[in-house]
C-alpha cells in the first residue's frame, strides 16, 4: 500500500495516530507539522507517492485550511481533520472534493480515519457503473465518487448499462436513475437480477422526490438500496460503503467456507459445487472432460520422519505447484494427501499427458523444510466422463489411483 501524509501540528494527535497505525504493519505514513514541511515532503517524494492526505484545518502557517486546497490541487484524496465542529466550515469543506470531514473527538475518530485509508486502497479495484440519461447528473455523481478512487464507468440508459455488465462481470456497483429512455432503471434491475444476484453486484436506485412507492418497488425487485435526489456527498458515501462492506464480509465468509485451511486452495465442498456445474455444462455441450485424482506417495512417512509441520509444508508446496499448472481448471484438496482436478475440454490422452508432466514436475522438485529439504512423488488416476455423475467419475478415478499405488506408485493410471 502507498504511504499517506499526515499534516498535523499537535504532538498528542500525532502520537495517537502513530500508536493506532503501529497495530497495522501495512500502514506507512509521513508526518509534517506545518504547511511548509508538507510542501517539502510533497516536492521531494512527489504527490504520486501518497495514497491520501490527512490534513488538520488549523495550522500556524495555514490557519484557514490552505493545505487542503494544495493537496486537492495535486489530486491527492484528502481527509480533513478538525478540533472543533463548525457547521459553516463543514459545509464549506464538503463543497470541495474531499474524502471526508472528521472531528477529533476520541480515539474512534482516528481509527475511522485509518479505516478510510484502507477503504481508499480497496476502492482502487472496485468498478462502479453510473447510469443516467442526464450528463449533468452523471457528472455530479462522478464528482462525488472520484475522491474515493473508484474505477468509474458511465452509461446513458439501461440498455447500455446491461451491455456493459454483460461484457464486464467485474463491475461491482451499479448506481442507476429510474427515469431513462430505451430501458428505465427499474427494468434494468429486473433484467440484471435474472442472471446476477445481490451478493455479486450491488445496485443502488435513484429518483427525484415525488415518485411515491418507487423505493420499495426498486428494492423488492432486486436493488440493494435506494436514494432520492438530491442527496449529499456524505449520504451517498455512507450508503455505498455500507453495501460494499456487506458484500466483502459475505465474500470473506464464502472464501472461508470454500478454502482449505492448510493449503489455501479450494476444498472438497467447493470442488463438488463447481464440479457438478461444470460437468453438466460439458455434457450439454458435448465437451470432453476428464477427472484426475492425485495422491502424495508415502505421506504418513513424511509426517513420521519430519513432523506434521513438515507434512503441512509438503501439502502447501504441492498445492502451489498444482495451482501453477492447473489454474485454468477446477481443482481442490480433497482431504488428507489427496487432490483433485476436473480437466474440462481435455480428452483422455491430453489429460493423461498433462498429468504425466505434472508427475515429472513433482518428482524433480525439491521442497524446502524448516530443518532441511525433501523430495516427493505422486500417484494419479485419470477417468474420462461418459455422461457420469461427478461421484461416478470420482469413483473411477479413485480406482485408477488405487491401481497406480498397487503398481508401485509414482505413476499415472488412465481408465480404458
TrEMBL record:
Catalytic activity annotated for this protein?
A: 2 GTP = 3',3'-c-di-GMP + 2 diphosphate
Q: Where is the GGDEF domain?
A: 287-416
Q: Name one Pfam family in it.
A: GGDEF
- What's an example of a GO molecular-function annotation for this chain? diguanylate cyclase activity
Keywords assigned by UniProt? Nucleotidyltransferase, Phosphoprotein, Transferase
Q: What is its EC number?
A: 2.7.7.65
Q: What SUPFAM superfamilies would the database entry show?
A: CheY-like (SSF52172), Nucleotide cyclase (SSF55073)
> Highest taxon of the source?
Bacteria
* Positions where 4-aspartylphosphate occurs in the chain: 56, 177
Please tell me which top-level EC class this enzyme sits in: transferase
Q: What is this protein identified as? A: diguanylate cyclase
Whose protein is this, by species? Alkalimarinus alittae
